[in-house]
Amino acid sequence: MAQQLPGLIVTGASGFVGRRLLEVLAPLYRIEAVDLRSQGASGAPRHPNVRWHQLDLADADATAAFARRLAGDGGARAAVHLAAYYDFTGEYHPEYARTNVGGLRNILEACATLGVRRFVFAGSLAACRFPPPGGAVDEASRPDGEHHYAISKRRGETLLREYAERVPSTLVRFAALFSDWCEYPPLFVFLDTWLSNRWNRRMLGGRGRSAVPYLHVRDAAFFVRRVLERMDDLEPCEVLLASPDGATTHQQLFAAATAYHLGRPATAIHVPKPLAIVGLHMLDRIGRAIGHRPFERPWMGRYIDAQLTADARRTRQRLDWAPRQRLEVLHRIPFLLENRKSDPVEWLRRNRAMELRHLHPNLRIYSLLDAHQEQIAAAFTAALTQVREQQLPHYHRVSERNHRWHHRLILHNLMTAVRTGEKGVFMAYCRDLAEHRVDQGFDLDELRFALDTLDRICLDHLSRDPAAAELTLAEIQHAVSRTIHFGIDCIEEVYETRLPAAGDATSNGAHPTPEGTSPHAAHR
Questions:
Q1: 20 and 221 in contact (C-beta within 8 Å)?
Q2: Residue 430: which domain range?
Q3: How many Å apart are CA 159 and CA 111, to the nearest integer?
Q4: Same domain, 497 and 463
Q5: Does 355 share its domain with 369?
Q6: What is the pTM of this model?
Q7: Do residues 212 and 247 lie in contact, with contact meaning Cβ atoms separated by under 8 Å?
Q8: In this structure, are residues 124 and 82 in contact, taking their beta carbons and an 8 Å threshold?
Q9: Residues 4 and 145 in one domain
Q10: What is the pLDDT of residues 468-519, one digit of tens each?
Q11: C-alpha angle 358/359/360, rounded to 5°?
């Protein structure tokens, strides 16, 4: 890594913008990339100037430890904070407070200790209230939207002002970001519907005037680069708009997409707003009944024919920057549709990944585990303490050595793996655990029994929580049971390597299953 380059922290480095930003900035900075996911799993670009840190910013202790390590390695000149939670459900999720507010506070504190000279905070124009007809959102507009994301960003901007003297910041509000593969969930749903043979393929809500501004992700990356280049000229807590002027309507997108797909623009059927709102409620109720709610939710009805028009003239003057015309959304529609046609598998992979990133079953499962964390930990401890020797001849030392199990640490690592979707987090912990337990004289069966017990207790608590009703058993088992099963496999591998005889009796996976426990997830 080139040490003479200025240091730059990039949070949310595996995200839609983060990956592109690494490509643009890696030759110019010594980048400390921070993300919940591993670099390999995220597909983020590799570069000699990029060092990866798999870190949960909402964990204050872990973030402080990251800052201490970085202080010893040269620190950082600036930070770009992209990490945030957002979804399109319209419902509250604990991640809005945990990540968007708590995580922001932790990284701000870390940057304050490092003496970071500029903190670039990524927000969205969607955090602002839609202006009245004929009006526009500009740099002076407040993040006064009523939805949960806007509220979390409003709280975030308050934090930035609290830290203004210690960490000068720049607030960047992005337009709706897309790529040549789409990767913007609402636009993906529109195109998927309009270019299909479905009954509603020609229907537009209201008069088709619903509109937001769009910005190509490549322009977004170069915008951040320009902010960093001009950071010493910017005021503390200055707001900038990464957006073209105006907004693009659904009618314009529909015409452009159908014209390229069919050879001529299709005629849209405009559904009056009151009727469209009723339709959204009906489709959502049907979706609830069959266990698969549509992307379109009732809350979206209030924005039919509303326009989030942008006026970014001041930003263009401040940065001497403007979106490239060839990357304007209506000009790129043919490129999107060609990618959709030429490589439909990659098209779906990229867009389903974006969709799932916002609807994550694993995040809902993590929230449930977090809510039941104390009860699960207590039940886990009690289960191992109360093992009866006559029932479990293979686990005769579990009770007497129960105090040596770090129950909360095991649960913490499981929850981290569930939250990030990275089973490797738990697998690495289990390998390390097995190495220590071999040295301490624990039997392989003791570890198997303990993790099987944790699996059973987690599933039991989740199954009894009404908040888990929308989750399928398969989703819960994939997030929890499969993760634990992978951890058990790592433990078995360590024991087979260190104590070859330990695996002989159970080489076919036929180890005894104590009464009251469940078999591994693979057999569920």
A1: yes
A2: 362-523
A3: 13
A4: yes
A5: no
A6: 0.71
A7: yes
A8: no
A9: yes
A10: 877 889 999 999 999 999 999 999 999 999 887 655 544 444 333 333 333 3
A11: 95
